Amino acid sequence: MPKFVYKARDWSGKLIKGELDLSNQKEVVESIKDNGLIPLSIEVKSGGMFSELTKAVKGRVNLKQVSTFTRQLSTMLTAGLALTDALALLKNQYDEGSGLGQIVGKTLDEVRGGMPLGKSLSAYTKVFGEAYIASVSAGEEAGVLDEVMAKLADTMENQSEFQGKVKGAMIYPIIVIVAMIIVAFVMMIFVIPKMTAMYEDFGTAQMPKITQILMSVSSWVAKLWFMFPLMGVGLFMAYKIAMKSPKFHFRRDGYVLKIPIMGVLSEKSILANTTRTLSMLLTAGITLVEALKIVATVSGNKVYEKAFLEIAEKVQKGFSVAVSFENTGIFPPIVNQMISTGEATGKLDEVLMKVSDYFTKEAEEAVKALTAAIEPLIMVVLGIGVGFLVIAVIMPIYTLTSSV
Asked: Which long-range contacts (CB under 8 A, 24 or more apart) does 70-76 make?
């Protein structure tokens, strides 16, 4: 229940301030008047930074939530429930304060008022995506909304499952790398300086070169440690500003595709996602040119976005789909061959879904390869780091011992 802060005056003109826990502003006004006061202003009390942060986190909607919502709505529509009844049942399942709960509630009110579902969801493009909304609108127009929702649910569940596998594979390397960085900073700021002071007490022997390097780096890090967070923030801000430049964004995405192993994974993931989305849009009855333009926006990579827009332009001018794909020069031969087959047989949507399944499996193999490559690489880096520290620490002991 919200908390309201109010200002009021009594009949003598005295200003009175207070707080009330009531359902809405109307009840607050009635309560103030019942106490013989004249209301001046009423505001919802802010819960501070923590409250705002909690509200922001609570209001976020992720792919898994949208996937579950789509599957539930699809099941209800297939069972014969009216759209408004299905949305009403879904609304009761969500917390009113959650992001998806608010969306379903507003959508239900608008659909009851006669607005199409697709148009209502278009206000939440960032949550559902253009492909999702376009498919829903096309399904409504064709009278096959239940079939479209089932197709959307299948697509989003596959996408969510794949993203889960990628995230799961990256958790271990990320934890190890973060731990390495933390340990390195602790060593440089706290441990090495104490060892340096101990060695300096002897003062008679010349330290080995590797130990001198370690001490110099440690001294520099200990004095300027506060600069590292500032540098991190500065680089992040500079990157965000640079990403607003179309040329920089395009080049960045091009370089990402060239990174060993990681670039292959990115390429396979993009191809799996775009071909699956294109198949879904064509199945929903959206024209090929419009579907290609939508896929360009959801590709997540400027190189492929440019390619899909060029294909859409060529198809609109009368070129065949297969030739248009081949002329971009960035799609693997199997994509061009399969699209040529699908265009010739008139089953382009089915062929694209098979292409998507193929690249999904390829992407999963790339994830395994990435994991297999990262683990030994981490061990090598750890070995080098530990070896460097051991040599730098133990060598002075032998030097000091031999000089006595």
From this structure: 70/149, 70/152, 70/153, 70/156, 71/153, 71/157, 73/149, 74/146, 74/149, 74/150, 74/152, 74/153
Quote the radius of gyration of the chain (alpha carbons, Å).
31
Domain 161-404 has CATH 1.20.81.30: yes
Q: What is the pTM of this model?
A: 0.69
Domain ranges of the chain: 3-45, 58-157, 161-404
pLDDT in tens, 299-314: 888 999 999 999 999 9
Superfamily of structural domain 58-157: Type II secretion system (T2SS), domain F (1.20.81.30)
Q: What is the mean pLDDT of residues 122-134?
A: 87
pLDDT band at residue 273 using 50, 70 and 90 as cut-offs: confident
Q: Note whether 385 and 180 are within 8 A (CB).
A: yes
Predicted confidence (pLDDT) per residue in 141-164, tens digit: 888 888 888 888 888 888 888 778
Confidence band, pLDDT 50/70/90 cuts, at residue 384? confident
Measured between alpha carbons, how far is 148 from 116 in angstroms, rounded to an integer? 15
CA distance 7 to 11: 14
Q: How far apart are CA 66 and CA 71, in angstroms?
A: 9
> Which of 212 and 399 is assigned the larger pLDDT?
212
